[in-house]
């Protein structure tokens, strides 16, 4: 008998809270033109509204997972909810663009405390037989967020509720956070794995700085035309990441507290899982290019644009719920998920290239790709977290979240740069078709890595 009788109710509130993290990534993109008009903001300031959220989230998510291990996942999750609540209010009632950017920074901090607690709690609260279903439920919220962010954002912006405009995309977070705070209080224990440990603050600082120096050049490279110093900062960030790794090894040998147990990064199957997670999140490029293509080239309004991504989002939502019913090995499911991503994006590229606008064929292709995304995500999360002991669940969850975030940022930047830099050369339609086909091509890397992962599994 499981010692956590209210674990399924707790999972509902955990996933609802975690839903806010990807939702705010998608929904804010829809509001950027309105924010620009309200504050007379520059393109650089608008980019910061989006980027500062992702930067703080990625830089602090391992720290958030570690805090959950040390002080209890319920406490840190609730702290994240409060941060998200008050920072969302700060965003909605910002007097100027600078205040909005700072509020978005605190939203990113709140998000970094939310996400790692969910996977770590699933690893602790649920038996091995229940974990696949729990992870699938958690994964499905990302599919729901991809639809809700685009569609809800479009409707809210058109609604003009109580004379609010762009503010509503932040105010929608308020009731969700309040419900989750109340629900978690009654359904979840403050489980934690380590007591009496201290936080590795030098490790925290090294990791944050290295991640910022890696992610910032990727985000702002196109703006500064990929100047030499962009690559210098990126190289310095990679070097600093290696210094962090060597520092953690030294601290672990001396039995001092560490932020990330070096054994996690020495576990080859776990690291291979992180790379697959990194590459399939290049799918974020679709959500950068597609809305822009529809609004700027085809002149669709926000609601029509939101409706266009529904096939992908519905399939992304269905995929995690379907995967528990497919009786195949983990590696076979990985091949299936990546194969659907490749075929879906490949056919979508062809339909755009020859037709130039959304069609039934395009919708079916996006549905196929979304289904692949929905299958691969819970399978990879379950595979990665299952390789790690419960005591390291928070750290492992943080590393998985980093792979998701850096993959999304890197993929969005590379695919977006390819799209925007080729518009003038080959035109809108061919540039978008090329960008979509590039997303498909990247997934081949995941198939090659999964083959390597399968070889490791056979040796054990």
From TrEMBL:
Which PROSITE patterns does the annotation name? MFS
Q: Which residues cross the membrane?
A: 12-32, 44-64, 76-95, 101-122, 134-157, 169-187, 199-220, 226-249, 270-293, 305-323, 335-354, 360-379, 399-420, 432-451
What compartments host this protein? Membrane
What keywords tag this UniProt record? Membrane, Transmembrane, Transmembrane helix
Q: How does it sit in the membrane?
A: Multi-pass membrane protein
Q: Which Gene3D superfamilies match?
A: MFS general substrate transporter like domains, Multidrug resistance protein D
The record's listing under InterPro entries reads: MFS, MFS_dom, MFS_trans_sf
Pfam families in alphabetical order = MFS_1
Residue ranges of every copy of the Major facilitator superfamily (MFS) profile domain listed in the record = 10-458
This protein's name? MFS transporter
The organism of origin for this protein: Chryseobacterium endalhagicum
């Amino acid at each position: 008998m499981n010692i956590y009788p209210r674990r399924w109710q707790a999972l509902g509130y955990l996933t609802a809270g975690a839903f806010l993290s990807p939702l705010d990534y998608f929904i804010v993109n829809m509001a950027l033109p309105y924010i620009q008009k309200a504050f007379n903001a520059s393109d650089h300031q608008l980019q910061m509204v989006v980027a500062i959220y992702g930067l703080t989230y990625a830089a602090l998510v391992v720290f958030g997972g570690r805090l959950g291990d040390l002080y209890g996942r319920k406490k840190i999750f609730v702290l994240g909810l409060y941060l998200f609540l008050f920072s969302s209010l700060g965003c909605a009632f910002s007097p100027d663009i600078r205040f909005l950017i700072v509020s978005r920074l605190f939203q990113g901090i709140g998000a970094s405390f939310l996400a790692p607690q969910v996977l770590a709690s699933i690893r602790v609260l649920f038996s091995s037989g229940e974990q696949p279903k729990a992870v699938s439920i958690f994964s499905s919220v990302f599919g729901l967020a991809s639809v809700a962010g685009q569609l809800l954002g479009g409707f809210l912006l058109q609604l003009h509720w109580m004379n609010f405009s762009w503010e509503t995309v932040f105010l929608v977070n308020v009731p969700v956070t309040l419900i989750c705070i109340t629900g978690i209080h009654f359904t979840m224990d403050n489980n934690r794995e380590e007591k009496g440990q201290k936080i590795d603050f030098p490790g925290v600082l090294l990791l944050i700085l290295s991640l910022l120096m890696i992610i910032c050049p990727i985000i702002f490279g196109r703006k500064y035309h990929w100047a030499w110093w962009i690559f210098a900062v990126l190289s310095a960030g990679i070097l600093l990441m290696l210094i962090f790794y060597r520092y953690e090894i030294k601290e672990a040998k001396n039995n001092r507290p560490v932020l990330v147990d070096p054994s996690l990064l020495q576990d080859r199957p776990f690291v291979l899982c992180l790379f697959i997670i990194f590459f399939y999140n290049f799918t974020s490029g679709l959500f950068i290019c597609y809305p822009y293509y529809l609004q700027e080239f085809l002149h669709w309004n926000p609601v029509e644009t939101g409706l266009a991504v529904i096939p992908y989002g519905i399939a992304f939502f269905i995929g995690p719920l379907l995967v528990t019913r497919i009786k195949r090995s983990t590696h076979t499911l990985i091949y299936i998920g990546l194969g659907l991503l490749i075929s879906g994006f490949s056919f979508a590229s062809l339909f755009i290239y020859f037709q130039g606008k959304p069609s039934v064929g395009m919708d079916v292709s996006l549905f196929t790709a979304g289904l692949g995304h929905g299958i691969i995500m819970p399978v990879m999360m379950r595979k990665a977290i299952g390789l790690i002991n419960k005591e390291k669940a928070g750290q492992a969850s943080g590393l998985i979240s980093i792979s998701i975030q850096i993959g999304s940022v890197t993929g969005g930047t590379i695919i977006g740069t390819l799209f925007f830099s080729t518009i003038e050369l080959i035109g809108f339609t061919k540039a978008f078709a090329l960008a979509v086909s590039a997303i498909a091509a990247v997934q081949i890397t995941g198939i090659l890595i999964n083959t390597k992962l399968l070889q490791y599994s056979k040796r054990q």
